[in-house]
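so the lab meeting is tmrw and i was supposed to have these ready like two days ago... anyway. pasting both below. for each one the top line is the aa sequence and the line under it is the structure tokens. i havent really looked at them closely yet so no promises
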Amino acid sequence: MSGEGKRIGGPQEHLLKQLVFPSRFEVLEKYLGSEIARLVVEPPAPTRDALESASQAAKARGEGIFLPFYASSGTGKTTLANSLSTFFPMDFAPTEDLEGIVSFDELKRVASSAMERLPANDRRVVPINIDHRESDPPSSTELSQIKRFLREPTVGYRTALLWPETSGTIAHKMASDFSAIAGTPAIRIPVEVEGPSRETWISIAQNTLQLANNVDSLELLGVNPKDYDPGEFSSIGEFLRQVSNDFSARRMEMLRETRKPIRLAVIFVSESPDAGVLMQLTNSGKFGLMDGSALLDATRESVVGRWWDQHRGLLTQMIVQLDARLFGMAPQTTIPILRRFGSESIVKDLTDLDVGAARPSDIKTSLRRSDFGKYLNGTARPTYETRGTPSAISSPAFSLLADKGFTSGQDKIFNKSMLEAIRIYLEGEGIAVSSSGAEQKLDFCPLIPDNHFEVDGEVVCVEYTWRKGTFLTNTNRGNIAQYVLQKLQNYARELGRA
């Protein structure tokens, strides 16, 4: 997957709403693109031999080949037809689809277009799949058009025309009718194809779950392909549909477990100019999303690490259910906010350091450039983007605040300043906030986040941790992971999950 798309008017769609388990090739291809090749399992020997014979026959005769094939619904006919270049990369070019009428001109147009995209010295057979005519075999006129096309000397002669069917009777009639007008075919048709062996179904389902969502350990949510017996299903299609249905039901169950969907963002506020070590603790393809395995690896010997190691399923559930994210926030973002919204003593200290007054537009700009700001307005790419060197003014200013300390309630005052800035920022981004609060209990559960604000019926909870120096370094990886796991543990307990 290329990354998360922008959702106008607020943060990108909650992770629970993004999770999918496609059970059909067409939908899988939409989500995976070229990655779908990692799901494809080579067909059994009889099917493989028939397809290899078809490509060799086309090359030997200098004539295209008509290839009706059949299998019961859910066997994987579409996957097979679209994966010939994966199974036989030396014999078949990528498969093309014919979606319109079956005529000489249309077949030639599709084949010509395909061959124009291939190198001039590429002599592989081009498969054309007719996947929209199941139980609707070609008429005598169409068969004549097919015969003419397959003998056409510029493109038709190196084409394999695939016609999938679920009915063996229809497929045999189709082959017989074609042979009557075109003569004995180069190979025996129709071809009865077999799907992948049952021994591969569980791994296909596991890979589908991981690749389609780019999130590890989703089987820990409560729907694990290993818990299903392939022998109870007549086809891989039925098997995948059952897993898909159960996964969708579990996803909806998790969404309903709270009255309102909750998001969690943990923000490390320090002098670090970028995300630093957070990149090792988050998902590489989901912007800022916590990586449960990475968090455990960093702190497995701690008390909280050992606790979560015994509750791996719950850890995955909490990360997914909270759409839990990690961000760093640099001084160039925080200092303008504290200069405008900080306490009287903080404003005086910053003024003494020649930190100029921050206008609302300055605060909006600094937040918009931050990773957290991009998360809030839905413009973030899959990975962290904030880069740069410490500011000559804001970093010394932040260092002064750190020297005075972030304890004794000082951090709570900072957190309230952050909420004021977030309100201004969201308003400037055209994102409506229906309610918000700092250090206040949510009205529908016992949580008391540092900040919370509601956008589109979802409550974003923000937990800040104010740290001295350039904190987001590898030496602090374990401390960071431990803090995050403790926050997740607290949320799990307050939400009644642990």
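ok protien two:
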Amino acid sequence: MGEQKGRVASSVRASDSRKPRQLGYVALSIVLLAVGVSVCIVQYKVPSILDPIMGSYGMSTDSGAWLMSIFTMVGIFLSLPASGLAKRIGPKKLLLLACAVIVVGGVMGAFAGSTWQMIMSRGIEGVAFVFVTVAGPLVIERYVDRTHQGTANGIWSLWICLGSVIGSTATPVVYGAVGLKGTWLVYAGIVIAAAVVMAVFIRGNGDASADDEASGDAVREAQLGDYLRFLKPQALLFFFAYLVFNVEILAVLSYTPTFLQQQGMNATLSGFASSLPGLLAIVSSLAYGKLIDKTGRTKIFYLLALVVSAPATMLMLTQSEPLLWVGAAGVGLVGYAIPVACLTALPQIAGSKEMMPAAMGVFTLVQCLGEFLGSLVTPMLLGPAMDQWTFCGMAMLVFGLTGALAMAVCKIK
């Protein structure tokens, strides 16, 4: 009997050794957020110093545009393969791989001697961005209890908001102090520091093979049929609504400053206006995460956010007076519930844990596609002279309400 108890105890200890160190869900989410923000800062280091970069390399306007748009192009092609990689090596290892990839891209960019080398380095950094987008929510889905996933996703959803604001505002200062090479290397160092923190605090294998061994499930690569399952009506409605949100956000972030400066607003204030929704989301994302946890519902928040963000986006593209700030409040305080609700509801669309990596691949693809369409369609709506703001705003309003209609008929809890 004593021998049997000893074997059982040894088995329990061995099983426990395979599990990651158990952080509280808030601490785990904050560690993940630090990694996400460090990567997102790298993405948004270019816009605020685009002119001096173009001058340094003698870039044309078209070449300069590729320094940002290559991110969305990479995401469109790599989102689904990244989900398969997450299934094979596990989301924690995929996050660490993302950090390694983005450091490689940063070092390459720091020593780039030509335009094509700089653009290629940005493409490599974009690969890491895709990996993080896929892996972050999968870590939460795997290691956070379902009753707390709304809050965890609310914290995680801040990574792009915080990263874009920090990257856009801090980069000119860092660039002025240490130059382009120094800026690229400093940001690579920040990513390394965040990766070390994550590796230390989320210990254990944290990979698919260990978790599946513990649960008795076999690791299986995502197949074409897994992705085809998301062509069903409910999944299409769900993801279409998220596509709409990403088109709206891209339009606001990229073109609201242009509109406001055409109306006579200075560059600093116009930049603040376009980034204000992201700052407000620091509060609203956490609040909606808690509300989703307490109510166990996602659709009502998803739908409300879509209904509000449609006219709010229109206001941010057509108004420079008090209504501009009403629009910014609508997007930031209500519209940014969409990423939180979407991520928390994603297991309902996936249907099983086994399908979550494939679902995250589709989620990332939709996000990148929405950003790409936003950058492609918005200038078309504005016309060659970039002055058809009312028409563009109305088109975004109609498109946004179409997304709300899709969510209204989507059957999720």
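from a quick look at the 2nd one: Confidence is low (pLDDT under 50) at residues 8-21, 204-219. The CA atoms of residues 253 and 274 lie 5 Å apart. will dig more after coffe
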